[in-house]
Structure formats: C-alpha cells, structure tokens
Amino acid sequence: MFNKDSQTKIISSKKAWQALVGQQSAQGFTLIELMISIAIVVIVTGTVLTVARMSDTNKNLTLSAGELKATIREAQTNALVGGSGNIEKHICGYGVEVISDAIKKDEYQIFYTYAEDSEFDNNPRICDESEGQDSFPGIVKEALAESRLKLKDGVVFSEDSAEAKVFFLGPYGEASSTGFTLEREGGGGSVTININEFGKVD
After folding, report:
1. Is residue 17 part of a domain?
2. pLDDT, average across residues 64-86
3. Which of 1, 65, 115, 163 is 20 to 30 A from 141 via CA?
C-alpha cells in the first residue's frame, strides 16, 4: 500500500507531467495556428491581386471602347465637313480600320479615300458611284497622318474583328461597317461596337 507521502508524490508527478504535456500541446497548436494564418493570408492576398488585375483589365476594356468610339465619331465628322482641312484632294470619305499587320491585333487608324484627279475630271460622281471604296478603279485609300492608335493594355480586337472597319461616305455620312468587338486578352469579357447605316454609334 502507498502511504500518504507516496500518494502525494505520485499526484505531484502526475500534475507536473500533465502541465508539461499541456504546455507542449499549447505550443504545438500555436505553431499550427500560425501556419494556418499564414496560408490564409497568402490565399487572400493572391485572390485580391487577381481581382485587382481583372478590375484593371475591365477598366481598360471600357476605356478602349470609349476611345475607339471617339475615333469613329472623329472620322464621321471629317466625312460630314469634307475633310480635316489640310488635304487638297477629292475626298470621298473617312473611316476607321483595324491595322492588319499589328502583331497583337490591338491597333487601329483613321483612313480616307479620294478620287484621283484624272478620274474625278472624267467623272465628278465617282465617289458616289464607288461608294468611296478603294476596290473601285481610280479610288485610293490612305491613312490619316499620325492617326495610328492602340488599345489599352490587356485589350485586343477579337478574331472576328481582325479586319473590321467602318467607312463614312461624304458629304452626308452614310455608313458601311462590319462592327468592332474588343475583348480581354485571353478571354473573359468583351465589348461590341456597332454602327448602323445612318452613322449611329452604339
């Protein structure tokens, strides 16, 4: 039989052991909690950065669409007023087109078409008859000086819009257009710009 002193020693030893194990357990759980906290911070940070990048691209998509619409309206205005004022040619009209030789399909420009002097002298209605298209003999297309523009970072023209263009025939601005579709590079969002025959830009 254990005497009272022996029982006291056993109880004391048991309490000391429990205290030691409890302390180690507490330290172990603290380390696990720290690792979990770090993992949560990493996950949340990654999510926030991804959302921020997506938000920037969405903003660039909206800005690019707005700038393209403004450029289209500039070409429309030039067609209505008969030119930009510094071109001494028989202007047929103005338009905007995607630049086909751009590597990423993210550039576009204002262009105009005009009738060659000899063709215009022979047929003053050549612009109307050709509808200003450079595929018609005697009609020439040129890019407006310093009009090459670029979409915002992360935004490109879709495959369907790789050769998109709109043309406004002067002096009344009748429009012929294929429409433009802008999209986030890699997919995930797009904006389509349509121009009807009366020149309304949507």
Report:
1. no
2. 88
3. 65
